């Protein structure tokens, strides 16, 4: 039987290298290890892995928005999120788009191996200690304010919050400066936020970037 093929995305190089070594020592094949959500999407498109492991908090494109785009890929890989789960508001959205593994970085690395085994067999895996937080988040059922934004607008919001200029946003997303300005204006209007500092605070509250 061919080894399970994995794309691993985490912006912390040491952690990424350690997880890659762990997975490969257990017979899995890490076909790509990348540092942001945009690179993860490109790797999935090019390499068609069986599993993609995404850190929630990554630059350029966070794990949730990367998972949303990957959910449209056919065949769709099994998706697992790595997180501290300090703020579980994103959990209902992650479940909706097809994420089936939730691994806490505060738990042992073996949790990731167990998660891969479980989601491959069609089950849901949640690290011990995270179950109650997930239940609470799903029971609350309060929609995130950013759900009114389109996927492109969420990408623009994250890049603004990361300090990118309009030109930098255009380059990152491979769109024109005029289009980037248009999306930024729509984000501000939809959220009723009219300054960059306010967008940064909003992105932090929504868990799109780390404080």
In words, what does this structure look like?
The protein is 49% helix and 14% strand. It is globular. α5 (110-120) links the parallel β5 and β6 (125-126). A six-stranded parallel beta sheet has the order 2-1-3-4-5-6, sandwiched between helices. It has 211 residues and is α/β, with parallel strands linked by helices. The chain folds into two domains: 5-140, Rossmann fold; 145-205, Orthogonal Bundle (Arc Repressor Mutant, subunit A). α7 (151-161) crosses α9.
| Strands, count | 6
Described by the principal axes of the CA atoms, the overall outline is: globular
N-to-C terminal Cα separation, in Å?
44 Å
Structural class: alpha/beta
Write the layout of secondary structure elements.
Layout lengths: L4 E5 L3 H13 L3 E6 L2 H11 L3 E5 L7 H8 L7 E6 L7 H6 L2 E6 L5 H11 L4 E2 L4 H10 L10 H11 L4 H8 L3 H15 L4 H10 L6
Parallel strand pairs: 1-2, 1-3, 3-4, 4-5, 5-6
Helix pairs in contact: 2-3, 7-8, 7-9, 7-10, 8-9
Key attributes of the depicted protein:
211 residues; alpha/beta; Rossmann fold; Arc Repressor Mutant, subunit A; 2 domains; 10 helices; 6 strands; 49% helix; 14% strand
Summarize the structure.
With 211 residues, the protein is of the alpha/beta class.
């Amino acid at each position: 039987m061919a080894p399970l093929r994995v794309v691993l995305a985490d912006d912390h190089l040491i952690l990424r290298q350690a997880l890659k070594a762990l997975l490969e020592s257990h017979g899995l094949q890490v076909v790509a290890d990348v540092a942001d959500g945009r690179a993860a999407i490109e790797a999935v498109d090019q390499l068609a892995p069986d599993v993609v492991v995404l850190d929630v908090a990554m630059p350029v494109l966070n794990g949730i928005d990367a998972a949303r785009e990957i959910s449209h890929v056919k065949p769709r890989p099994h998706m697992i999120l790595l997180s501290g789960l300090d703020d579980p508001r994103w959990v209902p959205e992650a479940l909706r788009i097809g994420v089936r593994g939730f691994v806490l970085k505060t738990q042992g690395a073996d949790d990731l191996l167990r998660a891969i085994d479980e989601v491959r067999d069609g089950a849901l895996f949640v690290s011990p200690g995270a179950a109650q937080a997930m239940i609470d988040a799903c029971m609350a059922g309060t929609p995130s304010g950013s759900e009114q934004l389109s996927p492109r607008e969420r990408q623009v919001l994250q890049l603004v919050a990361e300090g990118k200029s309009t030109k930098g946003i255009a380059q990152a997303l491979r769109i024109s400066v005029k289009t980037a300005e248009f999306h930024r204006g729509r984000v501000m209007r939809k959220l009723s936020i009219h300054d960059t500092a306010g967008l940064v605070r909003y992105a932090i509250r929504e868990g799109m970037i780390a404080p």
